[in-house]
Amino acid sequence: MTSNTRQFRAQAIPTIIMVILTPLFIGLGLWQLDRAEQKRNQGSSLEMRRKQPPVSLDGPHPDAEQLRFRQVVAHGRYLNDKSVLIENRKHQGKTGFHLVTPLRLQESGRTLLVNRGWIARDQIDQALAAADVGERLTVHGEVRIPQPPAIELKQKDAASEDTAPRWPFLTLEHFREWSGLDIAPFVVLQSPQDAHGFVRQWPHPRVSDIMHIGYAIQWFAFAIITLLIWIRLSLHKRGTKEAAV
């Protein structure tokens, strides 16, 4: 009588591949878990920053990175002739602009940019007229650091007599070159509670670890699959004969 059994005998090439790939996949999975932990810590840090008392920008203050997502307050006057409109900003399905105006600080004389909110495309003339505020103001808001797009298109700097320049995006370096102003390296998203308001429903960046957890599971699954394939390739059939008594 003949029966088939399996004998475990590892082969050189599959074993070498397994020894290389399995630790690699496990290491990548652990790296993704570490990235997920970093994201959770980053999210907690952002929430803590938003809940801290406002920082006054009138005097000495921390650098831009330390101010990122912090609530701030500043006193000064708008330089309305240096306002720009950022195109193709959406609100509730409608297309409009963000109005960005430099604020000259009262005490220090320094200048910072304030995003004053969203304006509907068909209300631009009335909104700009209402935005031409000359008195001293108190501005509250949250600090953001704008990032340049991956592909920069040519900006349209020329303004007509009755409107501000319209740009597809805002970069601090381009604004400095265009305006000749030495602006602070950040933008203040003005608070909805401030006067002279436009639509100010600023999105809050959400830091999620879900993507990294998913990648970690994927890499660990690859490690398990590699081991299973190696085990399967290492099992070989062996025929044996059992003598009948």
UniProtKB/TrEMBL annotation:
Similarity annotation: Belongs to the SURF1 family.
Localization per Swiss-Prot or TrEMBL: Cell membrane; Membrane
TM helices/strands, residue ranges: 12-31, 210-231
Name of the protein this chain belongs to: SURF1-like protein
InterPro entries reported in the protein's UniProt record: Surf1/Shy1, Surf1/Surf4
Membrane topology (UniProt): Multi-pass membrane protein
Organism: Candidatus Thiodiazotropha endolucinida
CDD domains cross-referenced by the UniProt entry: SURF1
Residue numbers spanned by region Disordered: 41-62
GO cellular component: plasma membrane
Keyword Transmembrane: yes
Keywords: Cell membrane, Membrane, Transmembrane, Transmembrane helix
PANTHER family in the cross-refs: SURFEIT LOCUS PROTEIN, SURFEIT LOCUS PROTEIN 1
